[in-house]
Structures are given as structure tokens and as C-alpha cells.
Design a protein that fits this description.
Blueprint lengths: L1 H13 L5 H9 L9 H14 L3 H18 L16
Helix pairs in contact: 3-4
Amino acid sequence: MKSENLKNEMLQLLSQSLPQEEKSSLKEEGFKFKNPTRTSCIVAALYRKAAGGDMSAIKEILNIISDSAAEKCDGEVTIIDDVRNKGS
């Protein structure tokens, strides 16, 4: 039960609007978020690291993108035929 409460608290914290100072900082760096939240800051920081060549940040971004792409394929079925002919 504690982990569920922690998760809910974290989600609430991440969805909070940013203070004006942090909004201005993101804007000065060239990030254009319509309604920036604390999550926006994390995304910007992850992007900065990836843009600097940090492979773990690059992999994390690719994971995030692939997860969201997989969610968009809701209801689709992919059939993979990997049965090999053993007699050939």
C-alpha cells in the first residue's frame, strides 16, 4: 500500500505547474512547452544529457519513444512467423 501512495504522490508532484523562474529558464534555453510541468523539466534535462552524447540518456529517450509508439498500436496484432523448416 505504501508504494501505491508513493506512486500517487510522485504523479501529483510531477504534474504540478512550474514556478515562473523555471518556466523562464526553459524558455531561455529554447524549450517551448505550452503548459510546462515538473515533468517538462525532467524531459528537458534528459534531452540535454542525450544531446551531449550521454548514451544512457539516448537509450532512455529511445525507450520512452518506443513505449509510446507501442501504446498507439492498441488493438493491432502482429504475427511473427519464426518457424523454421527442419527438413530443409
